[in-house]
Amino acid sequence: MFKKLEVWFVTGSQDLYGPEVLKTVGQHSQEMAAFLTKSAKIPVSVVYKSVMRSLDEVTNICIEANTARQCIGIITWCHTFSPSKMWINGLKLLNKPLLQLHTQYNRDLPWGEIDMDFMNLNQAAHGDREHGFILSRLRKSRKVVVGYWKEDDVQERIGIWTRAATAWYDMQGSKLARFGDNMREVAVTEGDKVEAQIKLGLSVNTWPVGDIVKIINGVSKAAVDKLIKEYEEVYEIAKEGRPGGKYHDNVRYQAQIEAGIKSFLKDGGFKAFTTTFEDLHGLKQLPGLASQRLMAAGYGFGAEGDWKHAALVRAVKVMGDGLKGGCSFMEDYTYHLHPSGYKSLGAHMLEICPSIADGKAKIEVHPLSIGGKEDPARLVFNTLTGPATLTSMIDMGNRFRVIVHDVECVKPEAKLKKLPVANALWIPQPNLKVGAAAWIYAGGAHHNAFSQAITAEYIEDFCDIAGIECIAINKDTNINALKKELKWNEMYYLMAKGL
Ligand code: MN
How far is ligand 1, taken at its centre, from the CA of residue 303, in Å? Predict the structure, then answer.
């Protein structure tokens, strides 16, 4: 999806410098945009627009950016000085994400040669400060990236922001389908769906399970055969699940669910969905393998009617698309509290995405202890080791809060021979005691969007773009400071929201 998308490179200046300098400013900007667009770290095109010299030009470019479908945000940079009053009208209108790139065309000071011409051309050092003032004065949320434009680190910061902006773009006007409502009496999976549409651009609606059952029952034998063939190629299948085995029909039924839900999602243009084991109507099994496969295909998913985490899983998948490491719906399930080191075992009843699997996943069929339905087929696997993030979104009543937690995935200490579900084992940062306390103080859900592709910076950029609260839990987390941050945020969001 990145290929068609653009960020616009807009350079600030003014007429004072005369045509000669402005021409050079334009050429330099063009060269920089062309360089950034080629960067492997930036997945979208960086398109040079023009050098801004007046209020009208700024206003026009902002209006254009707002209405251009392919434009996911703008990068501003002031090679020279650009008086900020001419930016006010345009920036007030701008509704696309903004990155302020604080760089300089010339890397080094030409010590022996430096003269006033050099100083007048290469003056981002103060031009971007004037620009920063007006953005702050307008309370305009943006990402500030500082450094020489050819540096890897600078490209990486910009790349992360473009991925966050792409997830934001993807969420605007997106549709999420819920099959059935929430798990009864559960609080954290509830939330204000009208507010989600106002704040996040996300449309969340519920469909009767009976309707999807009809579609699933209508899936052809040929479509199921085709999927079974694919399963045989991609996964290991337990003996009982193979043709002739006593559970083969259970695997076929999940293929039928997968094809049925997929056609519903495709036809309706949905990007995410939820299920609930408490409302399966005529479904013979809880969608296990089917939900896992649909997540791997890029759909957001939430169990127990959890639409907020379904939306997050989709957003995190978009941000991490093409990067090393997968993303899954996840749940903190059970702990290892041995004094040698606390660990958390993440899993779900069934629905963990195989994009995070360590090696080949295996299709197995086991009874489900709750729900009273047929034994569902599911993919079982361990997760790759290394750093990961857990992201949760909750509804605080007056706002959405996102919590992002750095964790380190580790190998199980022994084979989990009897565990019939996919799992991930991790050590939360800075450790389980502080990490879990911080998560619980912040009210983070038991569900999360687990990712080995993205870092907390992606989520922070996304929340800045969305204008929602973001609480990061990491190696520096201090409970005392976090409790204060939570209290101060209550005041900030209350006041920032106004009416
Ligand atoms: Mn759950």
Answer: 6
Q: How far is the CA of 348 from the centre of ligand 1 (A)?
A: 6
Name the residue with tokens 């302020």: 100
Q: Which of 36, 26, 172, 14 is nearest to 99 (CA)?
A: 36
> Which residues, 6 or more positions from 292, have their beta carbon under 8 angstroms from its beta carbon?
350, 351, 352, 353, 354, 378, 379, 422
User: Residue 421 carries which DSSP code?
Assistant: S
* Ligand 1 centroid, distance to 346 Cα (angstroms): 11
94 by DSSP, 3-state: which? coil
Q: Between vectors from CA 341 to CA 340 and to CA 344, what angle results, nearest 5°?
A: 145
| DSSP symbols for 217-281 | HT--HHHHHHHHHHHHHHSEE-GGGSTTSTTHHHHHHHHHHHHHHHHHHHHHTEEEEE--TT--T
Cα–Cα dist 247/478, whole Å:
50
CA atoms of 254 and 399, how far apart (whole Å): 38
DSSP, residue by residue, 126-143: HHHHHHHHHHHHTT---E
325 Cα to the center of ligand 1, angstroms:
23
Where helices occur in 122-220 by DSSP H, the ranges are 124-137, 152-171, 193-200, 209-217
Q: From the CA atom positions of the chain, what is the Rg in Å?
A: 25
CA of 483 to the centre of ligand 1 (A): 27
Q: Per-residue pLDDT tens, the chain, 499 aa: give them.
A: 899 999 999 999 999 999 999 999 999 999 999 999 999 999 999 999 999 999 999 999 999 999 999 999 999 999 999 999 999 999 999 999 999 999 999 999 999 999 999 999 999 999 999 999 999 999 999 999 999 999 999 999 999 999 999 999 999 999 999 999 999 999 999 999 999 999 999 999 999 999 999 999 999 999 999 999 999 999 999 999 999 999 999 999 999 999 999 999 999 999 999 999 999 989 999 999 999 999 999 999 999 999 999 999 999 999 999 999 999 999 999 999 999 999 999 999 999 999 999 999 999 999 987 767 899 999 999 999 999 999 999 999 999 999 999 999 999 999 999 999 999 999 999 999 999 999 999 999 999 999 999 999 999 999 999 999 999 999 999 999 999 999 999 999 999 887 6
Cα 254 to ligand 1 centre (Å): 20
For residue 187, report the distance from its CA to the centre of ligand 1, in Å: 12
| Residue 435 CB contacts under 8 Å (≥ 6 apart), including other chains | 405, 407, 428, 429, 473, 477
Q: How far is the CA of 445 from the centre of ligand 1 (A)?
A: 10
C-alpha 400 to ligand 1 mean position (Å): 20
Helix, strand, or coil (residue 103): coil
Distance 331 CA to ligand 1 centre (A): 6
